[in-house]
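Feature request, filed as a ticket because there's no other form

It would be nice if the structure record came with a short human-readable summary line next to the tokens. Right now we just get the raw output. Example of a typical job, pasted below so the devs can see what we mean:
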Amino acid sequence: MSIDAISDRVNLSRNACWRRIKMLEQERIIKQRVAILDANALGCELQALVMIRALSHEVNWAKKFHNAVKEMPQIVSAYRLSGDMDYALRVRLEDMQDYDRFYKDFISRIDVADMSASFVMEEIKESTELPI
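Raw output as currently delivered:
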């Protein structure tokens, strides 16, 4: 939202609203401002949820895994999990052939015990908003 729209919504002057936003940025409550892009319009029509079981739980393996995740732009989010699987990745790709290239590239960077993907058929809700 624009500063004008936010100031109208919270009933503050534009300047007071701007100062509060700047304070929230300085305190790192607002981490960054982003543009939310239409992935389909940009050719990233395939979304995969990739589940990974670690080959090792050693520090060096974890560092190598973290580096691989950070280096691959197709991975838009990554999570370490509790339960049977150790990690979940959300990946954006062009198509199945692109997923195959991604898969081969990923396993060339890091050995995993198990890796499986589910492909999103319908996106029901996608949000960056917090429930506050």
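Something like this underneath would help us a lot:
Strands lie at 46-54, 75-80, 87-93, 112-119.
The mean pLDDT is 95.
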